[in-house]
Amino acid sequence: MFGCLQFLRFGWLELVSCLFPAFLFLGLGISKYVDLPIARYDALLIYCLGLTFLFWIVRLETWREVAVIFGFHLIGLGLELFKIQVGSWQYPGDAVTKVAGVPLFAGFMYAAVGSYLCQAWRRFDLRVSNYRPVLTTIFAVLIYANFFTHQWIPDLRIPIALGLLVVLRRTWVFYTVGVRRYRMPLAVAFALIGFFLWIAENFGTFLDAWNYPDQVSVWHLVHPAKFGAWSLLVSMSFVLVASVKSLEGRLYHRGSTATVEISPQHDDANQAAE
């Protein structure tokens, strides 16, 4: 019974951590089926900017978190601009805010990942142990660069991924659900997030936010290989969010390395130590 209750608590925390992605998909759905007075992508840009401002105003996100989310927004736009030019996917429809075939709202689909990480960090009281920020950042940059360079040189994502696994082999992420504290390997967390991003990508293409070349005539599932690509790209978002949490003193785990039960006294002691 307790296990089922914990699972429900975990699911609820995940759900509320996905507020920005959920509102983003709501906007995608409405803009697909409702006639708008302006171009769809222009409306989505205004909508996403409004969401970001609202999250900051109601203190769902701090100004530092908003800054890092916009950082990932720009990283995503850079990738989009390149991928559109090489024909990896396309954005149907015209818009005033469409640059070189890429609507500016597209960066918010990457920013939504950063928002999720910030929300989850707070709601699950996330911390990491044995995290190696410099090496992790280097491999995250290599992963991002490989999305560009594999157009001209061999695709190095597998050796880079293996290198990242070596760097993260002892890195654990700790999180709280209810009265218990749990942990999992950070690499596993990346894979789980990547899987759900692949699911989200399928919904995004179904709603015609963008299309892969083989989806233009008839929609079908996005190739499962994209699951791996998303799992790798999550590392870049994590590095950006972790840099903010380091400044806030909320990055590293202190205390037992085993799954522990949190009592109010224990929790107060942890907060005092931080």
UniProtKB/TrEMBL annotation:
Pfam families: DUF817
InterPro entries, A to Z: DUF817
Alphabetically ordered keywords of this record: Membrane, Transmembrane, Transmembrane helix
Segments crossing the lipid bilayer: 12-32, 38-58, 65-82, 102-121, 133-153, 159-179, 186-207, 227-244
Name of protein: Uncharacterized membrane protein YoaT (DUF817 family)
